[in-house]
Amino acid sequence: MLDVGSDLLRIASLALAAHDFEAMGQNLLRIGIELVEGDGDVAHINNEYPDAHVVITGGDCSQHERAVRDICARMHHRGRHQAQGKDLPGGRSCPWARPDPYPAVDGHADLSKLETDVGAAAKERREQCFKLAHRFIDNAKKSGGIGPTSRSWPACRPNEDTDVRVDIEVKYGRAFV
Amino acid sequence: MSATLHSLIEAWLSKRRPDDPYGSVEAFAEGESSGLWPYAIAHEQIDLGEYDGDYRGALALNLAKSYRPYEHALAALVTLGGKWPASNATSALNLLALAHRVAPSSGTWLDTFLSRASLECIKQGLSDPRAVVSEEAANILGGLGSYHFAGGAAQDVADLRELARAVVGRIDQPDVVVFLNDRVQTVLDDATNSLGTKGLCEADAAQVLKEMEPQWARIGHSSKDLEPLVTLRTHVTALAWKLASREPAAIQVVHVYSNRAKDKEQKHQGWSIIEPWFAVVRSMVQSVDNLIEGTAASLDFVPVSAAGGSLFVTLRVVSDHEELIARGLRAARSKPVMTSAAAEELSDMLRLQGIKIRVAHIGRDLSSASLGIGPDGSGVAGTPLRSRKLETGEIPQANELERIFDLVDCVATGRLVTPDSIGVTTERQVQYYKAASRLLSLLAEPTDVLTRTGWLLHVAKGNEERYRRISTAFEASACGQAWLEWANATRLSEIPADSGEGFLADRSALAGDTVSRRASTINRWLEKLRQYS
C-alpha cells in the first residue's frame, strides 16, 4: 500500500504551486506513482485545477487520485517568489502551497532560499530588490497579512529594460501572516 | 453576436462567490472573451457603492493582469477613480498595480483622465498609514513613465515629491532609501520636464465625455443594456467632472432618460426634474441627520453643465454634509421607496412624464453613491417591493371626478387637454387628472388614447350613468381592489366612510402627510361613488 502521507503532500503541493508537472511526475515516480499527460483508462486528477490535469497509471489509481485531489483541495494558500532577468533564463522561483495561511517567517526563509539559489552574482545584482521584497513581507505582516496580489521590485518603467527583478505573487489565500 | 452587458451582469451575479472574491473574478475574467467582463463587475460596485471590498481589489488585479487599453480603459477609470480602500490593504496594493499598468499610450482624452485617476491613486497610496501600501506606492511611483503624467499638473508632481519624501524618509535602511529615492526623483524630474499641460480643467470633462460616446455603444447595444448602461454612464460622467474639477466639492450628475422610444422627446423636459431633486436631497439629509438643526438649509447646488441626448445635468454640491447626502442616497436605495413628500412629488412628475432619473454622487474623497428613481412599476427607488403595497402612482390625487369626465370628453373628441378645458388652474393638475384617468383604465398607457372603458364613460347618458361607470372602474383599479380587500368588502358601498387613511397606512408605501392627503382624495371619491356601486 502506497504511503500518501508527507512525501506526496510535499511533492504535489510544490508541483502545484510551481505548475511544474514534469518535476512532479519524476518525484512521484520515486515513490511509486507514474504520471503521464494525455488520456487513458486511468484516473484524471483534480478537475478543479486545470493546470493539474495529469493522469496516473499504475498502482491503485483511484486511491492516488483521491489522495492528490484531497491535497489540491486543501492547498488554499498558494504563491511564489521569483527572480527574473536575462542572467536567469526562465527565471528562478520558490513556490508555496499550503492548507493554512503562509507565515511571514516562512516567506523570509523561502525568499532567502531563492537568493541562494540564484547564485552570488545574480543575488548581488538584485540586492536592493531582495531587500525591498523582505521589507514587503515584514510590512505585510504588520498589516495582518495580505491576499492575492502580484508585486515586482523594482516596478519597471515603460520601455525600461527589466533585466533584474524580484517578484512575489500571492496567487490564492493569504500570505505573510 | 457578442455578449450583452445585461447578460454579462446576470452571468456575473450567478458566478460570484462571496467566500472567494478573487477566485470568482479570475474565473469570470478567464471565461469571458468579450472584453466586457470588467463592466459587469464595475456596474455592481457602482450600484452597491462599494469601494473597500475584495471584489474591487480582484477587479483591479485582473485588469492589471490582462489590461487591453481599448476595451478596458473605461473600466479601469471606474476602478481607480473611487474612494481609497482604507481598510483593505490588498485592494490598495492591487489598485496601485493597476495605476502602474494603465500607462497611457494613445493620447486620447480617456487616457488623460485615466492618468489623472492613477496619479490620485498613487497619492492616496503614499498617504496611506500602512507601510506595506505606502512603500509600495513609492516603488510604483519610481516605475512610472512620463506618459503616466499626461493628466497631471505641476502641483501633482510637487505633491508626489513631498509625499514620497516622507514615505522614503521613514525607511530605516539607508541603501534602500537611496535606491528608492533615485528612482522616484528621476521619474518626477522627467515628469516636470515633459508636462505640457496645467492639468485638467472642467472643459476637458466635456471633451472626454464626448470621446466616450462610441465606447458606450460598444459596451451596451441591446434594449436590456439600457439600465446598466445608464448606471455606468451617469457614474463616469460624475467621475470625469470630479477628476477635472479644481474646486474641492462633491459632484452630482442627474441623468434624465426614458427607456421608451416614444418618449425620446420627453427626455428634454428634464430640467423641470432638477429643482424637485434639490428638495428630495434636502429631505434625505434631514431624515438621515434629524438631530442637526438646519443642516438641509445649508445645502445648495450649483449647476455646472448640461448635455443633451438623455439629459445629463452636472451639479456642484455646496455643503459640508456630503457624507450625509451619500448616506441618504444609499438609504433610499436600500428601501423600497423614498417616503418624503418631496420624493413623492418628484416620483409623480417622473411618472407623469414617463421618464426616469439616475443620480451619481461623487464626494470630495471620490466616494460614490448611486440611485435610480423611476416609474418602472417596482417602487419609487427602483428596487423590488418586498410585499405588495400600493405604489404612489396607483393612488389618485385628483379630487374632482367631474374633471375626469371633462378630460375623457376632451380626449374622445380630439381636443387638446389644457387647464382651461378641464376646469383646473395648472398644468400639474392636468397631469394629476391624466394619471387618475390612467389608473382607472380610462386612458391607455403610455399613449393616453381612450380605452373601451373610457369610451363607455364618454358615451354614458347623464351624470348618474357616468358615476355608475366610473364607480365600476374604480372598484376594478388596483387602489379600489386593495381597499375592498382591506375592508373585507365586495363593493364600494360596503367600505366604511372616511377609512381611506387607515387603508393607505396599511396597504400603501406612502408615509407622513402624504397618507392623509391621498386619503382625502379617495375618501371624497368614496363618498361620491358609494351610492352608485
Key attributes of the depicted protein:
heterodimer; A: alpha+beta; 3-stranded antiparallel beta sheet; 41% helix; disordered N terminus; B: 533 residues; alpha+beta; 3 domains; 5-stranded antiparallel beta sheet; 23 helices
Give the helices and strands, then pairings.
The complex is a heterodimer of chains A (177) and B (533).
Chain A: H1 6-18, H2 21-30, E1 34-36, E2 43-44, E3 55-57, H3 61-74, E4 77-84, E5 92-98, H4 104-117, H5 120-125, H6 127-142, E6 149-153, E7 165-172
Antiparallel strand pairs in A: 1-3, 2-3, 4-5, 4-7, 6-7
Helix pairs in contact in A: 1-2, 4-6
Chain B: H1 5-15, H2 21-31, H3 37-48, H4 54-65, H5 69-80, H6 89-101, H7 109-127, H8 131-141, H9 154-169, H10 174-194, H11 202-219, H12 226-244, E1 250-257, H13 271-288, E2 300-307, E3 311-318, H14 322-334, H15 341-353, E4 356-362, E5 368-373, H16 401-412, H17 419-422, H18 427-439, H19 452-459, H20 462-476, H21 478-486, H22 500-507, H23 513-529
Antiparallel strand pairs in B: 1-3, 1-4, 2-3, 4-5
Task: Write up what this structure looks like.
- The complex is a heterodimer of chains A (about 180) and B (about 525).
- Chain A has about 180 residues and is of the alpha+beta class.
- Chain A has 2 domains: about 70 residues, no CATH class; about 100 residues, no CATH class.
- Chain A is built from 6 helices and 7 strands, in the order ααβββαββαααββ.
- In chain A, strands 5-4-7-6 form a 4-stranded antiparallel sheet.
- Chain B is an alpha+beta fold and about 525 residues long.
- Chain B folds into 3 domains: about 200 residues; about 170 residues, no CATH class; about 140 residues, no CATH class.
- Chain B is built from 23 helices and 5 strands.
- In chain B, strand 2 and strand 3 form a beta hairpin.
- Chain B starts with a helix and ends with a helix.
- The chains are: A alpha+beta (about 180), B alpha+beta (about 525).
- Chains A and B meet through helix 6 and strand 6 of A and helix 4, helix 6, helix 8 and helix 10 of B.
